[in-house]
């Protein structure tokens, strides 16, 4: 007799999750929510109150518990407790809305007791520069695990986690479609570090190696049906065509004047040859490694929350 594989998660429907909303007033204004909302996302104040406030409360519970365990363990060992940053991973497909989730979480966590310092980095800064991707024949594989300098990303997060005073990360530009050679982000001993990117939940290449996910204290996977994400990607391409691509400095400026049907065909082609295969082959298989999954409906709202059984 075959046994069904047990899910590692309990699924909490949206209405039940919303009931967990702490009785604190929504700390964000309409204007702040608009600023945090990514292109194509339809984030509303109600979504913040019903989904993200309980989420940020849950994350801060995990953080308090990790800090307590750290303090008690170091006291047990007779060592001096140096607080270490709590590291949160946010994973999911291109165009699923990871950056909105990560920015919102950053703002909400900053507003919890003690006003923790919350920094956010995106893993696109650790993509190899186009020059290297071209040399390796990887320009059509941007976002696949091999397109990143995974060792540098792991080194960065390890150094932040070990409490280094200043740790620097490279910066990627969607405008130039490349790493900015003269730019960097400096992270200075945050209480919480959010690491957002497609591949942050990848397992290590072998059991002898570490992956960045080994350093996460909590991880979130933003999920939706692949067909819905493909449509969101195409819609966003249209919004970018009317906006960012109009800038003559944009790498995509040449697409600014495509007709609607040419633009749709081009966006679908990029999805079907790069982002779709990456989602199916590399990103979806990491979903079960997350501590929490936010499952979105076709209209971008969160339909349910899956929480790892503790
Ligand atoms: N070609 C582009 N030009 C300008 N901005 C872009 C471009 N592609 C994506 N972006 C922006 O980059 C951010 C990250 O996008 P993405 O990696 O697809 O993650 P997600 O949609 O899950 O946040 C989004 O805010 C998106 O609007
Ligand atoms: C820059 C990205 C790889 C995302 O990187 P992330 O920050 O998630 O590591 C992605 O948004 C991207 O540009 N993919 C290339 C294919 C495309 O243009 O959609």
Automatic annotation (TrEMBL):
Instruction: Name all Phosphoribulokinase/uridine kinase domain ranges.
Output: 87-226
Q: Which residues form the signal peptide?
A: none
What molecular functions are annotated in GO for this chain?
A: kinase activity
The gene for this chain is coaA
Q: Per its UniProt entry, which superkingdom is the organism in?
A: Bacteria
Q: Where in the cell is it found?
A: Cytoplasm
- State the family it belongs to: Belongs to the prokaryotic pantothenate kinase family.
Q: Which UniProt keywords apply?
A: ATP-binding, Coenzyme A biosynthesis, Cytoplasm, Kinase, Nucleotide-binding, Transferase
**UniProt keyword Cell membrane, yes or no:** no
Which Gene3D superfamilies does this one have? Answer: P-loop containing nucleotide triphosphate hydrolases
Q: In which pathway does it act?
A: Cofactor biosynthesis; coenzyme A biosynthesis; CoA from (R)-pantothenate: step 1/5
User: Which protein, by its recorded name, is this?
Assistant: Pantothenate kinase
Catalyzed reactions = (R)-pantothenate + ATP = (R)-4'-phosphopantothenate + ADP + H(+)
Q: What is the lineage of its organism?
A: Bacteria, Bacillati, Actinomycetota, Actinomycetes, Micrococcales
Enzyme nomenclature, EC number: 2.7.1.33
Residues holding ATP: 92-99
Give the species: Agrococcus terreus
